[in-house]
Write the structure tokens for this entry.
Amino acid sequence: MNKASLVGLAAALIIGFSGAAWAAGDAEAGKKVYKKCKACHTLEEGGKNRVGPNLWGILGRTAGAAEGFKFSDDMIAAGEAGLVWSEETLTNYLRKKEGGKAYIGSFIGKKRAKIKMAFPGLKKEGQAENVVAYVKANTQ
């Protein structure tokens, strides 16, 4: 393979992975999966924080910055390092394979961050995308 071909392949991979690292989910399927989340999180505008923060307006919010909730120092540091919740970042956070402690740690130079969310992540393929679709549909 020549140099031009390698550069083209690399560009295609970067564009493909950066723009499509997640797939849009199914909000209706996410409603069922969200039942695991609602013990700790509310979705309503002005809703209470529970063990976890209220999720109203989470998309576009800096990590560690929900009003009235005391986040871990590592979650706040991830926000200060540039983590803003989007469909993609929230999906990655919720995935068991990459998610939670490892995902937040990647923003602050740690293998595993200290965060308050004890839930280990969503195991089945598509669950994280579906929950994010449900949260998006119910928090804007």
About this structure: Helices lie at 3-19, 27-34, 73-80, 87-94, 101-108, 127-138. Residues 2-22 have pLDDT under 50 and may be disordered.
